[in-house]
Amino acid sequence: MSARARAAVLALLSAFTVLLMSGCTSPKEYTGQQFLMDTVVEITVYSPSEEAAREAALAAFYEIKRIADLTDRFPEADSAAYQRSDVCQINSMAGIRPVQVSDDVLRMVEMAQQYSEITEGAFDITVGPLMDLWGFGAEPTVPDDYSIGQKLALTGMDKVIVDKEAKTVFLAQKGMALDLGGIAKGYAADKAVQVLKEKGISQAVINAGGNVVVLGRKNKRDLWSLGIQDPRDAGSLIGVLALENQAAVTSGDYQRFFEKDGVRYHHLLNPATGKPARGLISVTVVCDSSTVADIMSTALLVMGQERGFDVVSRLQGVEALFVSEDKEITATPGLKEKITVTPGEDYFYDPEG
Q1: N or C: which end of the chain has fewer CB within 10 A?
Q2: 144 lies in a domain?
Q3: Is residue 329 part of a domain?
Q4: DSSP 288
Q5: What is the distance between the alpha carbons of residues 169 and 195, in angstroms, rounded to a whole number?
Q6: CATH number, domain with residue 153
Q7: In sequence order, what DSSP letters do the residues of 63-129 get, joined into one string?
Q8: CA 28 to each of CA 25, 166, 205, 245, 269: distance values in angstroms, whole numbers, following the listed order
Q9: pTM of the full predicted structure?
Q10: Cα distance between residue 353 and residue 349, in whole Å
């Protein structure tokens, strides 16, 4: 990533603002930042010992980097990073042979298969060829319908073959490519939380570019406060969440996009059409698992509000906030007790709706 692009990411760190310090009574705090998984990851840890807090945070960063290495699609060919990436190995052997993978990548692929069924195909990790066609990993462009159709023929979760006993993943058709961008950050954040707990940490916040996990409470009295970014104004909020021991992930059309001829094209592609999803501009998902929240925020934005609302209603412990293109905000019933919606004049929100 260029220095200019990296600076842009730093300027727009995430879809959330984590309100950390006010009222926090923990004696020692350590906050660190690292550029991982194409975003700035910030970890704040509280502990009676500053050294213990720092050590735990660094161990969590290491765990996120380990997952990043396993899922990286774009390291230089034949480099050490390329050899560490299970995803690169799977993609290079598409249509040739199964690839033995780590337990973590196997778990992510299995969860992707599970949630592909739950979301009626809206979540699909085989969109790699389409992502490449649109140039979201390099120089973005608007492809023609014929080219999109050709790449659509290289997608489909039914072509991903997993052998749990052998721990292998096989893409049945040459030219296929996995892209774990809709699950890897969430999974990495969950693994990092696990590391923090093993280090004896009970109070922390991980913010991986909009994938936020809070551990414990801000203090004995207060929950953590997370401000949800206005999808059309990076300097404003449309709501504030109050959370404890939960994850919140936002997906939106403003995070990775380009404009051509007055039309916004974003990276959240509809697997059915091969084109950017339309209808919603932002979806925030709250649940106990950062992995599930990551998956569902992507899938719900693709599905749209009506279908997405129906799916969420059938998932225990998963809540969502939808923001439509016409700036209507809708929250699932279980989220209303955790959120204070503060929309600007351009938005409409009916708390009783």
Answers
A1: C
A2: yes
A3: no
A4: S
A5: 27
A6: 1.10.3980.10
A7: HHHHHHHHH-S-SPTTSHHHHH-HHHHHHHTTTT--EE--HHHHHHHHHHHHHHHHTTTSS-TT-HH
A8: 9, 46, 14, 20, 43
A9: 0.91
A10: 8
**Domain housing 98:** 73-171
Q: Is residue 80 part of a domain?
A: yes
20 phi and psi, to 5 degrees? -90, -55
- CA 289/CA 327 separation, integer angstroms: 28
Beta bridge partners of 269: 276
Q: For residue range 143-171, list pLDDT tens digits in order.
A: 999 999 999 999 999 999 999 999 999 99
Return the residue matching tokens 């969440």. Answer: 241
Any bridge partners for residue 18, and if so which?
A: 226
Contact by Cβ (8 Å): 70, 104: yes
Tokens of residue 141, six digits: 């462009």
Element (H, E) at 234: strand 233-243
Does residue 241 lie within any of the structural domains?
no
Q: Which amino acid is at 272?
A: A
Long-range pairs of 118-121 with CB within 8 A, sequence gap ≥ 24: 118/311, 118/315, 119/295, 119/296, 119/299, 119/300, 119/302, 119/303, 119/311, 120/303, 120/307, 120/311, 121/157, 121/271, 121/272
pLDDT in tens, 315-348: 999 999 999 999 999 999 999 989 999 877 789 9
Contacts of residue 248, Cβ cutoff 8 Å, sequence gap at least 6? 16, 212, 226, 241, 284, 285, 286, 293
Number of domains in the chain: 1
Q: Which letter does DSSP use for residue 184 in this model?
A: H
